[in-house]
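Re: your question from the hallway

Yes, I did run it. Sequences:
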Amino acid sequence: MATNGSAKPDGRYAADRLAKVQLSGIRRVNDKVHELEAAGRDVIHWQIGRPDFDTPEHIKDATIAALKRGEVHYAPNNGIPALRKAIAARTELDTGVPVDGMKQAVVFAGANEAIMASALALINPGDEVLMADPNWPNYRHIISLVGGVPVEVPTRGEDDFQLDAAEVEKRITPKTRVLCITSPGNPTGAVQKRETLEALARVAIKHDLVVFSDEIYARIFYGDGRVSPSIYSIPGMPERTVIINGFSKTYSMDGWRLGWTVASEELTKAIYKARQYTTVCVNTFIQHGAVAALSADQKCVDDMVSEFRKRRTIMLEGLRAIEGVTVPDPQGAFYVFANVKSFGKPSSELADWLIEEHGIAAVTGSIFGTSGEGYLRMAYSCSTDECARGMARLKTALDSLRK
Ligand SMILES: Cc1ncc(COP(=O)(O)O)c(C=O)c1O
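Structure:
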């Protein structure tokens, strides 16, 4: 709708680039939750993708100590050396590839800023950027904001949402510059298998693409080992991959706003240049807390993942007990992406009905891309008890639709 007498949807002073960007559909559900709760309604919180745990105490203590020591001035643009070294050590452990933190790591105010700065540094206006559909919508919007063209590659629940290299290759043109991979995925929780990553790596190398590998959920992994496979560990990929990662999920630090990139020295130099003009640097004292997060005993992460594992079982068993719902086994993150096509309604309508009539806050799959239509994303980042109560409520609601 026009505002301020302008034909532009964002108002007459808005830059043209805003026309390709929508407000967050996830935030819209969140606002609805607040509205219902203010009216005294009980709501099941499956809408937001952030852990419900507190940040571990030792991370807070290290941050407070740094603040009290007077670590209150600008940090280096790319992050304090101790944190860059800790990021490098963690990346080496997770991928088996040697990393020089002083030359290859940059600290950001969240993974989101890491994606924005990497896009500003590496994507020209008109460049095409490949990404899975469905996918976390910020990729589509950030690429549009920097003038790039998002090109979506459909994936299917029947294939465990694997990103098929042949489908990717079909969409490559002389303008294709970057391939974005998010594994484990949001909204699907799907983990790209090593064979999938190897095939994607062959395509990236053949067509000289840069890969943005979003590994923010890599440690919230239910498969074999502590961490999901990374394309960075495939020969030929460290020189063309930008790892996007952060503290929000693994250490329950989403409000701290802290993330990073790891990439080759050449890519890092470009990202660093763009980064100097975004938030300049991250709050100095919280970077000291982040060093403690990466360097101390990782029991807090293991404990959180085992809690998520219990909730995942409740969610999957609950969904599979509802007639007409199917759900692929998510191997990571804290999302289930349930197929509700059999109810014969657009998933946005179903999601609106669930929240309005039954106080169940799920997100329609359609906001994650065309292939998300017919699915609902549920984030099990609420208590085990709430997951169980929610599943009972969801069964009653969906069963009533069949009558
Ligand atoms: C795939 C993915 N990448 C990045 C982010 C953003 O993380 P941060 O809080 O570090 O900006 C999210 C948050 O939901 C996400 O799902």
